[in-house]
Amino acid sequence: MARPMLSALLLGALLPGCGGDDAPSKVTSPGQPESLKTRALESGAAVLQDKPPIEALNAYLDGFHFYNGRLDGQMEAHHYCARLNEDVTQCVIFDGNTRKSKLMGIEYILSARVFETLPAAEKGFWHSHVYEVKSGQLVAPGIPEMAEHALMEQLVGTYGKTWHTWHTDQALALPLGIPQLMMSFVADGQLQPERLNERNQRLGIDARDKAQKRAVISAPPIDPLADAWQTGQVLQLDDPSGAAQHSP
Fold first, then answer.
1. pLDDT given at position 20
2. For a Cys-Cys bond, which of 23, 80, 85, 159 suits 126, CB 3.0-4.6 Å?
3. What is the pTM for the complete model shown?
């Protein structure tokens, strides 16, 4: 099967509901409950308006992030993604997978081919996906194992650039402060085991089994300028508001 056809086939099947595997947001925002008028307007908009950018979000990926420069600032991240072409994917990230989940951030994903063309100063903002894939930390809930495996073969050599705009991991009920650059894990022992265990139990996942089955996925060489936090280069925005404790 040609790779473009494989991509379309996979992405078209990836976003069914999560059923009993719901992960609700852990924060409640201040505000009055929706009125009947608001609900009626929303229902009308849902029927009458086309939403092509939203409808393109047809892949659901579940993984983990941490604040660049602060390894202990960890959280689960629910990605809803749209592939723009064979080399560029864009994702919106939520703190859960239910209707009331909070929009937590964004991630852009590039193929190694495109990543190689970036300036050296830019590459430090990006993280690799090799360990996420090979360890079983990154999963695509709700699709057949064969399809997930094929998707991970495509993702293993990619790079992600992630900004979180709402720090619900710190129980912030509103999107206070400024965006923060996030990273993904690159080695065993970095992700807090209780986070991985809770996610795996909720989804009925055996990460060790996934890692064993993904051992056959070739691990491409990682650009040395990616994952720059490992060499002490912490790229992060200062937050003069002091709204959240996410600085390194």
1. 43
2. 159
3. 0.87
